[in-house]
Amino acid sequence: MRFDQIWFRYARRAPWTLQAVDATVQPGETVVILGRNGAGKSTLLQLAAGVLQPSKGALRERPPVIGWVPERFPADQPFTAGQYLSRMAAVRGLRGGAEVHSWVERLLLTEHVHTRLADLSKGTAQKVGLAQALLVPPGLLVLDEPWEGLDAVARTLIPGIVAEVTAAGGIVLVSDHRGEIAGLTSATRWLIADGEVRPAADGAAGSEVVVEVAVARDEAEAAVARLRAEGHRVLRVREADSEGLPR
Amino acid sequence: MIALVRMRLAGFVRSGRALAPIILALVVLGVIYGGGPSTAAAAFGYSAVMLFPVLAWQTKLVLDAEPDGQRRLARLAVGARREAAAGVLTAAVLGLAFCLVAMLAPWPFHAICRPGSGQASCVTGEPSLVTGVGLGVVAHLLALAGALGLGALASRAVTRTVRNGLVVLVVGAVLAIVLGLRGSIAPWLVPPVMATARALTADPLPGGTKFVLLTLWALAWCAVALGGYGWLRRRRS
Fold first, then answer.
1. Which of A77, A85, A94 to mutate to test the interface with B (most CBs of B within 10 A)?
2. Beta-carbon-side half-sphere exposure of residue A31 (alpha carbons within 13 Å)
3. What distance in Å separates residue A77's CA from the closest CA in chain B?
4. For B60, which of A104, B94, B151, B188 could close a Cys bridge (C-beta 3.0–4.6 Å)?
5. What domains sit in chain A, N to C, each tagged with a CATH number?
6. What is the pLDDT of residues A32-64, one digit of tens each?
7. Under an 8 A CB cutoff, do B74 and A66 touch?
C-alpha cells in the first residue's frame, strides 16, 4: 500500500494537516504512528482507511477488506452489543453467528452481549468496535488509539491480534501515544510533526543515547506522554532520591 | 446492501425518531380530511402536496439517524456507493409506508366521496373512484420522489451542520410551493408537487399524457438531486 504524495486539509482555506506524505507499507507490516495531540495521526489513519479522501495525491494498492477501529466508538445506537455485531456481520456478508460468537468470547464480551451500546463503558464499547473490525479478516487493520479505556487484560490481547493479521499478510496501522506497541521489534515507527510524516528513530543499538531528565512530580505523566508522542522511548520513571539527583 | 438497509430501518424505528414526522403527518391529514368529503383525486392531490415537506423531513431524519462514525464504518464495509444508496433506499421504504398510511387515512373518516354522489363538493371531472385513487397513488409517489431528493441534499453528511441542513430543507420545501404556483418563472427548478395537485383538482381531469409528463419531470428532478447527493458524498463520508 502506497501513500502517493498525499496532501490533506479539512477546509479549502484551512492550513494543511498533512503535506506531501510519501510512504509505502508492505504486506505483513505493522506501522505505529507517533505524534503529539493534533499532529494528524487520526487524519492519516482515516486517509489510509478511506474514511477521508486526500485533497491531493492518492492512496494506491489499498487492500479490499478494511477493518477500522475509530478512536471513539459510535455508541449512540439503539442496539445491544450482540445485536450490533450480528447486524454488522450481516452487512459484511457473513451468515450465521460463528464469527460474532468467536470474537465476543475472545474479547471477553460475553457478559455484555445483551447490554445496550449506550450503556457500555468506554473500554467495552472500544472492544465492540474492535470486534466489528475483525469480523472479516482484514487486509488492512487501522487502529486509532485502540488501548483507550481498555483494562489490563484486554490490552494484552491487541498485540496478539495484530500479530495474527500481519502473519496472514495483512497490514496494521496503529496510532499509539502510550507506547503500548512501539516496543514490538517488528513494528515500523512513523512520526508525524508539522504536517510531515517521517520514519521515527528505529532504536537500533548505537543510534541512541540515554538522556536523563528531571521533571516536577505532578508533570511526570504529561512529560512521559509528550516524549512518547514525539517518538522517544521512555525507559523508566524513578524517584529522584533513589539514585541521587545531581545538582 | 439489503442488510445495511435492514440495520438502518431497525435503528431508525427503535430510536423513536420516526414519531415526530408521523405525528405531524397525522395533524396535516386531520386538517385535510376534517373539512368534509371530496373526490379521491382532489383529496389525494392536496394530501401529496401537504406531505411533501414531511416526507423530505423524514428522509433527512433517516439519513441523519446514524452517528457519523457508524456511517463511516458502514461505508468501509459495503463501499461508498452502496452505503449512499442504502441510505436513500431506507428512506424510500419508510416513505412508501408513509404514503400507504396517507392513502388509507381518509377512508375511516368517510372523507372520500364517489363522483356523482350528489354532494356539492363531489361534482368534479373525476370519471370514477378507481381512477381517482390511482391518480392519488401517482401523486404520492411523485411527491416521494421529490422528497427523497430534497431530504438527501439536506442530510448532515452533505450539509455537515444542523443549521445548513435545516436551511436546505426549509428553503427547498418553500421553493417547491412558491415556484410551483401557476405562472411561476421557473417551475422546472422544483419537483412538480404543485403541478400534480393542480392536475388532480382540474375539472375535467387532464389526459394521460399530462400525467406521463409530470412523472418524467418528477423522475428527472429526483435523478438530478440524487445524482448531486451521490456526487457530493464521494468526498463527504
1. A77
2. 25
3. 7
4. B151
5. 1-65+138-247 (3.40.50.300), 75-136 (no CATH)
6. 898 888 888 999 999 999 999 999 999 999 999
7. no
Q: ipTM of the predicted structure?
A: 0.85
Cβ atoms within 10 A of the Cβ of B206, count? 14
pLDDT single digits (tens) A209-221: 788 888 888 888 8
Backbone φ, ψ for residue B114 (5° rounding): -75, 145
Looking at residue B237, its pLDDT comes to 76
Predicted confidence (pLDDT) at residue A95 exceeds the cutoff of 60: yes
A90 and B3 within 8 Å at the Cβ level: the answer is yes
User: B232 CA to chain A: closest CA distance, Å?
Assistant: 12
Residue with cell 495531540: A37
Residues A102-143: tens digit of each pLDDT: 999 999 899 999 999 999 998 899 999 999 999 999 999 999
CA distance B211 to A150: 61
Question: Cβ of B77 and A88 within 8 Å?
Answer: yes
The whole-model pTM stands at: 0.84
Chain A residues inside the 8 Å CB shell of B7: 87-88, 90-91
pLDDT higher at B204 or A115: A115
Structural domain total, chain B:
1
Cβ-defined contact of B237 to A74 (cutoff 8 Å): no
| Structural domain span for residue B39 | 2-233
The CA distance from A127 to the nearest CA of chain B, in Å, is: 15
**What are A135's three cell numbers?**
469480523
Q: Can you tell me the distance from the alpha carbon of A65 to that of A85, in angstroms, rounded to the nearest whole number?
A: 17
